[in-house]
Amino acid sequence: MEFSISSKEHHMSEYKLPSRAEDFAEWYNQLVIRAELADYAPVRGCMIVRPYGWALWENIQQALDRRFKATGHVNAAFPLLIPQSFLEREQSHVEGFSPELAVVTVGGGKKLEEPLVIRPTSETIIGHAYARWIKSYRDLPLLINQWNSVVRWELRTKLFLRTLEFFWQEGHTAHATYEEAEAETRQMLDIYTDFAVTEAAVPVIPGRKSESERFAGADQTYSIEAMMGDGKALQAGTSHNLGQNFAKAFEIRYLNNTGELQYCWTTSWGLSTRFIGAIIMVHGDDKGLVLPPRLAPIQVVIVPIFKTDEEKPRVMEVAQKVRAELIAADLRVKLDERDGLTPGFKFNDWEMRGVPLRIEIGPKDVANGTVALARRDNPGKEGKSFAPQEGLAKLVSETLDGVQDSLYKRALAFRDKNTRVPQNYEQFKEMIEGGFALAYWCGRRECEGQIKEETKATTRCIPLGQESQDGSCIRCGEAAKEKVIFARAY
Ligand SMILES: [Zn+2]
Q1: Distance 469 CA to ligand 1 centre (A)
Q2: How many angstroms separate the CA atoms of 253 and 171, rounded?
């Protein structure tokens, strides 16, 4: 469905989203457009990220970048175009990615001697550079990240969740030993987990991927998996131990301290604009987006309320004073000064955009030295309170912390309620209809494939920190040592 928000604003305010219960997919599609996060592009499957969506992405970037730098990583930029032959050097990598490649065959009006691939990911071109940069053990570890976009020719697309081009960060590191590479892989998984929980209020399950779900070219893939509001899973970030696969394909070698030439051990890890999809589907409600305060582009919106020309300047004066005080307290604040729109319209509009806290200021508040506060996580009367203008910044900060906290608790309670341990395959089938099944799996590809065929559920991850247990596979009944999260996934 196509429509322009600005030209039909009044109409749109009366037009409700489909409820999540009634049509989750359509609720999501319309929300992304109406909250002005993104728009469709002329090329099918591409996405325009609108300023509001990009501001959210910038906050995600900053929260991650801070963590990357605190653990010794630096940023750089590698080229968009990769010689096609590079991808062919690592066998499973090319097999995994060739169906999704966009290839440039003409440049400057001439057919190219060697076709160029638009990066689907940058292991190969970075591997090529690392082979030239790394000489000795003193050059290790090499810890580089880049913020960029990549292209994967997806057939079924959905804004933020799966688009031809998407934005992300990709970290690429090289190490002297397997142990160091594995420690790095796990460290980055921990960083993604901490980011998801602390910044996005999204509970995640960190775990190992099964062999069939691994990244093409990795020895081991770890992921964080989140439960969306419809009970389906979303892989929200991945971290790969690439072993020596790329080091051997690209001759990434170093001289160790006894003068022997050794292959490096490499890793890669990424988190993308897909995460915005997770935030929408974990926290959103029937009124629209609900953003965690720590990532929200606008944390507080001030809506002035007045009826007469006489009231207006008095209300606006207080509204501006409140805005200045909140900005001084490092809060991200918007004063909605738009003319000719009713307060009710503005309330709906900011609720659609998920602003965590609304401050209403009317003539009575001006007279009483108060404001009204309305929490987005608890719309309606329950989330509403009145507060003195005096000392408001402190109260607002505390309230935002409270919103952040309650969003996390709510999402966690939902996930726990919908994560069940089946005793048999019949129960398993019921459970994955609306949630996660935590079940023993024998580890055989065959069983995994049958489960997928019969239930559309895939192995999401093997949660970390399990003690070895004696169980039996939910599908075949054979001995199993670990439980796996099974779910239908985005
Ligand atoms: Zn089995």
Answers
A1: 15
A2: 19
